[in-house]
Amino acid sequence: MTIEAGAALSSVTSGARLNETDALWLFESSDLLAIGQAAHTVRMAKTGQNVVTYIIDRNINYTNYCVSGCEFCAFYRVDGDGDEYTITPEELNKKIEETIGLGGAQILMQGGLHPDLEIEWYEKTLKSIKQKYKIHIHAFSPPEIIHIASLSGIGIVETIARLKDAGLDSIPGGGAEILSDRVRDRLSPGKCAADEWIEVMREAHKQGLRTTATMMFGHIETLEERVESLKRIRDLQDETGGFTAFIPWPFQPENTAMPGVRPSGGFDYLKTLAISRLYLDNIDNIQASWVTQGARVGQMALLFGANDMGSTMIEENVVKAAGVSFDLSEKDIRQIIESAGYTPKRRNIYYEILD
């Protein structure tokens, strides 16, 4: 480890805030164990308890139609592909009822940027769910909200307000990828710019909606751009305090338009997770990504700064479309947490304990 990186670790474990140069030194370091140990120290100091949380929910991808055409996505379809779909009310109700039957108190709804669905479709869907079921709706990432607003001829403020009035409870952090316009212009030119992603989250927080934040890394971004992405999220959290959690996960190239990209391994994932914990000092919860990394690396993440195992993922389609498939039941997740020496606790989106 370089002198600079060592000094950064010593500083952050003493309570100081990392700057962007500090974070870059850590990304350039190969001393994974020292970075992980520092992240674990900071995590325990922040949470103050030997608890790891998780949530029971279902990821419902309501459509795979998408006009964005992101190079990194293996999930989206366009007219003529033959397997494009938009969920029916009956299918949606069945999925929600199955989720409730398994103890779930939340659904995560995300989909492609459908060329024809205007805001009235989303309002009708949300109202129908709320009329039938007592369930938290965590839905519609910033690119979806921007697309809905544009297609409907209204602004972001009105779009969020109308979705909230119809039953939207919180917003997922999807579509962030790397919050650098150089990266986004190459990977997802049909999707919102970095500033637009931030503005949706700012407005959601202003209207009282809590959200999560994500970072998909390990494709064409530089280490400096990873730091830039983290900085944008930290700056907004300083301003609003609206993020409940941060979830970093590595790009999965199989079946995408970028099959030549070498996927990030466990080393890069654990280091990025640990640096996220150290740099994002204003976000309490860092989530392990067992969905992309598997149970064992997910368990290791609990020693590298993560304090949450995420969702049981009753259903997951986007990562699976990229050739990666891991499945864990609630029993599996609790066993993984316990065997790592922690007490598992079921939570909601606000990290309130439900056990």
Explain how this protein is built.
The chain is an alpha/beta fold and 355 residues long. It has a single domain, classed as Aldolase class I (TIM Barrel). It contains 15 helices and ten strands. It has helices at 3-13, 20-28, 32-47, 89-101, 119-132, 142-152, 156-166, 181-187, 194-206, 223-240, 266-279, 290-293, 295-300, 318-321, 330-339; strands spanning 51-55, 57-61, 106-110, 136-139, 170-171, 210-217, 243-250, 285-286, 308-311, 343-346. The strands form three sheets. It has a four-stranded parallel sheet. A three-stranded parallel sheet has the order 9-1-10, with helices on one face. A three-stranded parallel sheet has the order 2-3-4, with helices on one face. β6, α10 (223-240) and β7 (243-250) form a beta-alpha-beta unit. α1 (3-13) crosses α2 (20-28) and α6 (142-152) crosses α9. The radius of gyration is 19 Å and the shape is globular. Mean pLDDT is 89; it is low at 316-326.
